[in-house]
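haha ok so turns out i had the wrong file open the whole time. this is the CORRECT one, sorry everyone. sequence first:
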Amino acid sequence: MQTSRSPIAGLSPAAVPSPSAPAGEAPSPATPAAEGHEGHAKPAAKPAMSADMAHEMGHSGKDLPAIVRDMRNRFWICLIFTVPIFVYAPMAGMFVPPAPPFGLDLNVWLFGLASLAVIYPSWPFFVSAWRALRKGTLGMAALIVLSVGTGYLFSVGTTFFFNGGGQFFEAASVLLVFILLGHWLEMRARAGASSAIKALMNLTPAMASVVRNGAESEVPTAEVLAGEMVVIRPGGKIPVDGIVETGESLVDESMLTGESMPVEKKPGAMVIGATINKSGSFRYKATKVGADSALAQIVKLVQEAQNSKAPAQLLADRAAQWLVIAAIVVGLVTFAVWFWWIGQPLLFAVTLTITVFVIACPDALGLATPMAVMVGTGLGATNGILFKNASALEDATKLNVIVFDKTGTLTIGQPEVVEIVPADGVTEDMLLTAAAAVEQGSQHPLAQAILRRAAHLTVVAPTGFESLDGMGARAETGGGTVFLGNRLLMDTQKLALGPLEAEATRLQADGRTVVHVSQAARVIGLIAIADAIRPTSKAAVATLRDRQIEVVMLTGDNATTAKRIAADLGIDSVLADVLPAQKAEKIKALQAGGKRVGMVGDGVNDAPALTQANVGFAIGAGTDVAMESADVVLMKSDPYDIVAAIELSRATLRKMHQNLWWAVGYNVIAFPLAAGVLYPFVLSPEVAALSMSGSTLIVAINALMLKRTKLARIRQPGQAPQAPPIPQPIKKAA
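then structure:
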């Protein structure tokens, strides 16, 4: 039986960064917030982007919002100085420009303006190109440097060193305006794609009420210590993880688990930081703070998944490298053909060469997959589905078999009353009231199951309670003496089952534990107890089968019991009598038959099978080892989330493919147009820059549209959590 625990407790905190730690950087341990307060959590900071990405763009040490602001500022600086260039340059031709100030030559004046418009705004691209070149790679920055740099340097040469070649100050500046605009919008799109992490981090309240030196005081959440008593009032947010000591309440955990119903919390129950207290007041002991908290671990998982690369991305990265090389080769060939072979003027040949450099768009190819992954993993996190890496997100789309470990996944993993059979003239409530009276105060798992089922009834405390070893118990109630226990107890008391005999035999044959109840010298009914099926298990199985995915149930139960449960759930394939050490072998056998297998489990003995499977899904209420071994963690412990995870994976993969096809198709068409194949129709460098930026934006916007795609059990940002599907009632066996 699983105990109450954090749904993310299985993730090791040893290497968990604070929620603000950039992915790719070493996690820093919780550091004191002030002298003398050892163990304080590090204050939260703004979410940071990938360290590699920041370094590549020459923005080391800056987070994503800072890079967005930097790109915006560079764009406006470039635009401010490009406007007068456009006015003064002869190419504008809209009106007679004013004379340059201070009696300067027009080209010298344009050189000054262009230097201000180009050098500082384009500097990150030069840094990025240089760093990539030192690594032996080429990227989008190399093409930008070649196009803008060629136009600028060519114009400097014609201004100061040789005459008659014309100048590109206007073209280079306007080109850079469009490039910076595109990159600014791209960075904004990336910031939007990683909004899931920011939203998660913003859930934590800034202040917490703690008891120190016998008095309640308000302190920053970052200064709450493990072991301190935290006070929570109605409507307040829970600052850190802990265990309830006194009081009761209902807590809304939907922002972390996606579960729509508030969860009851009593003494001994675990509470999770960033969730919302709905009704009562309570006090709890802080157990996990800072980097050890469930929220910090969730953020870590999302960051790692968003910065990991799917198999398709590795291919796209290689393709982008070759695209840059192709753009450089095509650009040089274009210059050679137009200038030396066809004999066009130098200015015309250089223009087409720059256009080829500009129009190639490896950025669209490089963004096609990671943007979709960022949105998909973020959307999953907000719905309680945590993908540990991008490969799992892609591999989940290829699964054609889902293997469920029965106990704890398809079933709750603890005894529950699954059927009540009252005798003639007795109601279910009468039977439960008599049974609950005897079981009051007992901690036995079967007694707890009966008490949970009778929670809505008024039960009067009995007198003369007596435990009967090996048989059950007896007690005196207002309705007479009650005997509760097994068949031996009834036989000992010479109480005949009568018509209930056949029902008892049926229930026992189904693998149920049968509790016999008599009152006033008459057997008044039977209570069947078993590991209850989760409410959404049947709906999950039916939906998976509708999607042409085979469902297999794996269990250590005997074949008869296993087949009965499988029949209730609508599962045809059953692997029964499986020992814990054999689970991984069963997965291997399915894979040997050409199947792509997903394994759903929750226990320590499921870990090898979760690792062996193509994709391992761990139930959030499971063990630490299971969640460490899995690729996906289902925080709500809801089997229907398997459907949601696969739906989200397929939708994300569709976006990847759409983006990749667009990026490839764009470049196939763009190269010939830029090279002047349709001469006399030719593209200007400015139009090429606009096309390149537009192509990148289309990819980014298409990935962001995933947030608006309607998927099973996946709520979009701003929507209320969806209620689980209502399963069909399980029919009683004949």
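Residues 641-674 form the longest helix (34 residues).
again sry for the mixup
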